[in-house]
Amino acid sequence: MNICALPLLLAGCFLALSAHAETAHAETAKSTLKDGTGKEIGQAALVQTPHGVLVKLTLKGAVPGEHAFHVHAVGKCEPPFTSAGGHFNPATKKHGLEAAEGSHAGDMPNLHIPASGELVVEIANPMISLAKGQPNSVFDADGSALVIHAGADDYKSDPTGNAGDRIACGVIVE
Fold it and tell me: Which among 40, 33, 34 is positioned nearest to 56, based on CA atoms?
């Protein structure tokens, strides 16, 4: 081996390792959910995966029952949380996990909160991203929020799933 080529080889290896470390780094985000009185009722940890975003939700003191859970289009949570806008929908689809044409990117399964008001659940959302600059990124110009509704999502009624009022909200932040 030519001794003069060694620095170039090492530089190439360093660049390859740097690129690998960059792509291996998982993007993360979080959200603190509060009810309409400002009381914290939960935390969400979001992790970018190769197939979308994994939302790890921990609730304590939440209203028991079945509740819709969505990503909303605006990162603003002022009670009664209409400031969070509609459901996150960058591909302009119809609402509902049962929609034949595909659903809003922010549509997720209902939460089933037990009488204790405590719940730990992980939900995979393949339609959103934490990568800035992507068309389905929750970090667009006005941000995004996680919202819990008073009622269950019927998974088909457009545009909201007949889920009722918004009872908790948390802005998604890095």
Answer: 33
Note the pTM of the prediction, 2 decimals: 0.84
Residue 87 burial class via C-beta count within 10 angstroms: exposed 0-12, middle 13-18, buried 19 and up: buried
Q: Averaged in consecutive runs of 10 residues, what is the pLDDT profile of the chain (174 residues)? A: 43 39 64 97 97 97 97 98 96 90 93 98 97 94 97 92 96 96
Q: Do residues 56 and 110 touch, judged by C-beta distance below 8 A?
A: no
CA distance 120 to 118: 7
Residue for token pair 């934490």? 130
Annotated catalytic residues are: 70, 72, 87, 95, 104, 107, 149, 166
Sorted by where each starts, the structural domains of the chain and their CATH numbers stand as 26-173 (2.60.40.200)
